[in-house]
Structure to design on (357 residues):
């Protein structure tokens, strides 16, 4: 297969034979031509007629191919549009997620289109919202408070691929062969009684939703809350400390961590990159999120809960009183000591970039 004429003739020859189209798509994927593979599968790409692993491979291959700098054959194609909306992600990130999703879902591929699969809950985008978080931004305490209202869903990190109690648990428990199937189960089973669904996402959890098209099906018309921190250095120190000790709550930290300039500097860059990816996502999807900071949550979480409820159009029965339930924060004299050491070691140019005096 060397040119478009070859592809067109083969596509025509297999037009009435689904198995032939799938075989052609596999050959095209093996040849590094994912856009043509998508075209070969046609509308059946989105149906159980196409094996879930094949559909998934085609979607990730074309996304990674176009994000690697390849020119789209048709700039108006859905594949090209999706690649443009993935501008915050690199091809290697897409490949990494592709492998993780295949490892999770491929063992249940035979369930795709089965009687069980047809009876499972479908995606329902009504009254959905997402907490778009950066690490150490107060999101853990915030989602706990939102859940305890009983009216704002139960937002959790359900799509965390590397947390056994999250997506791996959902997939294995319900035998979901696709991300859509997993999302349908999650949305059905975690809504609050008034029908509100909430989920907490870091940027890596968002990527498969975008590549596989699940985002459009699950979050059309959804609301978004974006959690950040005004003090990036403090956020980076908190993240580095938790990463070093493995204790993400202060009560779980057995021994104090040792200062690491590299860990803090790396955390600054990691969080900054994550924030950039979120901003690109919001811009390219026309989303204006409700912006909430760690400092907002720390100062008055009840006011933040009220803002979120108002943003979602949910009437709470009265004021909440979560502020008194605030866990002991991990920020202490050790954080301040690390901050002083870190800033003393910073090069002047880096200090200017971070806007630190």
């Amino acid at each position: 297969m060397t040119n478009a004429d070859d592809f067109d003739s083969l596509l025509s020859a297999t037009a009435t034979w689904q198995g032939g189209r799938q075989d052609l798509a596999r050959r095209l994927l093996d040849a590094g031509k994912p856009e043509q593979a998508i075209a070969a599968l046609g509308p059946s790409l989105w149906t159980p007629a196409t094996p879930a692993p094949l559909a998934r491979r085609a979607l990730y291959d074309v996304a990674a191919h176009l994000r690697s700098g390849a020119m789209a054959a048709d700039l108006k194609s859905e594949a090209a549009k999706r690649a443009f909306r993935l501008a915050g992600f690199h091809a290697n990130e897409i490949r990494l997620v592709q492998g993780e999703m295949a490892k999770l879902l491929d063992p249940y591929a035979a369930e795709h289109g089965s009687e069980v699969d047809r009876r499972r809950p479908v995606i329902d985008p009504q009254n959905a919202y997402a907490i778009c978080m950066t690490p150490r931004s107060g999101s853990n305490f915030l989602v706990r408070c939102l859940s305890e209202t009983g009216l704002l869903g139960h937002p959790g990190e359900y799509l965390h691929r590397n947390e056994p109690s999250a997506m791996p648990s959902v997939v294995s428990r319900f035998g979901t062969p696709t991300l859509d199937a997993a999302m349908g189960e999650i949305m059905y089973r975690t809504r609050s009684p008034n029908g509100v669904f909430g989920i907490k996402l870091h940027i890596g959890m968002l990527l498969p939703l975008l590549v596989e098209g699940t985002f459009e099906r699950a979050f059309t018309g959804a609301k978004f809350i974006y959690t950040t921190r005004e003090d990036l250095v403090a956020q980076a120190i908190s993240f580095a400390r938790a990463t070093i000790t493995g204790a993400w709550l202060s009560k779980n930290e057995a021994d104090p961590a040792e200062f690491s300039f590299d860990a803090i500097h790396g955390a600054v860059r990691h969080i900054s990159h994550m924030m950039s990816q979120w901003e690109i996502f919001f811009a390219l999807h026309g989303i204006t999120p409700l912006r909430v900071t760690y400092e907002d949550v720390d100062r008055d979480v009840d006011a933040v809960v009220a803002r979120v409820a108002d943003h979602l159009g949910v009437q709470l029965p009265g004021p909440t009183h979560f502020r008194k339930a605030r866990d002991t924060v991990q920020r202490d004299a050790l954080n301040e000591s690390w901050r002083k050491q870190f800033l003393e070691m910073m090069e002047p140019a880096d200090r200017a970039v971070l806007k630190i005096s």
Notes: Residues 1-5 have pLDDT under 50 and may be disordered. The first helix runs from residue 4 to 13.
